[in-house]
Every structure is written in structure tokens, then in C-alpha cells.
């Protein structure tokens, strides 16, 4: 059996074990968890679902900024088609399936596969760093279960972190070095400070909006903490848990990691059962949002022959570039 085959089996097995562990933990406390879930009424659930649909759009717009800066500007519609369909790949074990899907679809829009791959990696890297920055105020909650109202000063650390990590010459040098090590041709264009700032701003907004649905759900369960504490635990906490989960590439979409970390940060200001209820509903809503946008993207991609077979394109007399340079 090949090494890649063994690696895939191990990743899949680990992912299943983590999901099973989360399921067992929820099942053991289901009576209390279900009671807290029942506290979320219909209008609150709909509001949370609507709020969960904001981050995917902002993420796509940030990805689109980087793609345009490197030489492939796309209208929002085709950008959504490529990005949202490709994003379903994050629910598979490993870290490359979204990149592969986006590169293949992008090739039919005359986007070099090398450029698609670089933009995908940059988007993940910049988004993860932005998530860690937004999540800084929640670090004491994660480490000690401390008082969230006293941690706002940690957000000041964001300025030097962003300044160093996103310094254009350093970022462009890093991209060029990776491509050289991989023996790939260098990119035709470099990232400007303006594009990096714009994409970073969109990713920061993505993280700030990501926890809004968790805030609504937590308040519905009866959490009595004051608003500043709730904001730190949900907005910063969700960003911190999700961005840390992004580094667990063997697990599909960080399943289990995000939930466990978020429970640790929400429980001190509510209860373990309420925190568990929130993360269960949160995962459902975020997956639902991803699937909804993927269906919309799939409809566009099918209509514009980004994911059709060669036979279907020949039947409809459509010519696309299947051999875009890598």
C-alpha cells in the first residue's frame, strides 16, 4: 500500500474518532443540552441562520481581492461559483481538496492553476492570522477561564502582528521562495500593500461577524453575563477556536477541535450544557450556510460549464480552456 494511501486512511480514521468523541460527549449530556436547545425559539434560530450566512460571502470577497491583484479579476458571480463549490472540499480530511477544486474550475476561466493555488494558500494563511488576532481577547478564557471583561487590552497586540505578517515585501518574498522550492515559475504580479490591507480587512470583518450567530444563540439559552463578556466569548472566542482549528488539517473543517475549544470559552460565562448546545447548533448552521452557497455556486458553475464534462460542453457547442497553464 502506498504512503499516500496509508496517510489518507490515518487522516480519515482520526477524523472519525474525533467526531465520535464529540458525539459521545454530547450524548452523555444530552438531557441538559437538549433543554438548552429547546430555549432557542424559531425567530431566534432564523436570525442566527441569517447571521451565519454573512461570513462565507465576506471570505469569498477577500479571496477575490487577492485573485484580482495577482492578475485574474472576476465578477462576483463567477467568483462565487468557483469559491463556494470549492469550499466544500474543506469537509474532506486533508488540506488540498478545496484548492484542487478551485484550481480546476478556475482553469476554465483562464486562471492559471498555479495562481489559483497561491491565492488559496494565501487566503487561508491571512484568514488564519486575522482570526488569531481577532481572537486575542479570548485567550485568557481559553487558558484559565478568566474574566473576559478584563482582556480587551490584548487586542492591541494585533497591530504589530499584522504589521509584520502582512508586510508586502516579506509576504511576496515568502510566496516567491515557496514557488522556487517547488520548482514552479514565479508569479507574474506581486501583492501590493493596498490589496493585502483590503483582503485583511475583509477577513477581519469575516471573523467579527462569525461569532454573531453564537452570540444570539448563547443569549437565547439564558446566559446572564454582561454584554462585553458575551462579545469577547462569542466573537473573539469563535474566531480563536475556528482559526486554531484551521491548523488541524487532518480533520475535516476542524470538526471537533472548534467545538471543544469553544465550549471551554463559553462555559465559564454560561454553563457547560448551554455552551454545548450553542456549538451543536453553530456547527449545523455553518454547514448549512456552506451547503446553501455551494448549491448556488454549483448552479452558476453548471450553467456556465465550469464543472460540466467535455461531452456536455461539446453537445452545447461550448469551448473552454481545459489546459490553462499551471
Main sheet overview:
none
The parts where pLDDT drops under 50 for at least 5 residues are: none
Please give the domain count. Answer: 1
What is the β-strand count?
0
Shape: globular
How much helix is in the residues? 55-70%
Straight-line N-to-C gap: 29 Å
Give the assembly state of these chains. Answer: single chain
**Which structural category do the helix and sheet elements fall into?**
mainly alpha
From the alpha carbons, calculate the radius of gyration and give it in angstroms: 21 Å
Strand residues, percent: under 5%
Total helical segments: 16
Report mean pLDDT, rounded to a whole number: 79
* Element order: H for helix, E for strand: HHHHHHHHHHHHHHHH
Topology:
Blueprint (H helix, E strand, L loop, with lengths): L2 H26 L1 H8 L4 H11 L1 H16 L6 H12 L9 H11 L5 H22 L4 H6 L13 H8 L2 H14 L11 H18 L1 H9 L6 H19 L11 H10 L5 H32 L6 H6 L11
Helix pairs in contact: 2-15, 3-12, 4-5, 4-7, 4-11, 5-6, 5-15, 6-7, 7-9, 7-11, 7-13, 11-13, 12-13, 12-15, 13-14, 14-15
Keywords: Cell membrane, Membrane, Transmembrane, Transmembrane helix
InterPro entries: L-PG_synthase/AglD (IPR022791)
Subcellular location: Cell membrane
Task: Describe this protein with a few key phrases.
326 residues; cell membrane; transmembrane helix; membrane; transmembrane; Lysylphosphatidylglycerol synthase transmembrane domain-containing protein
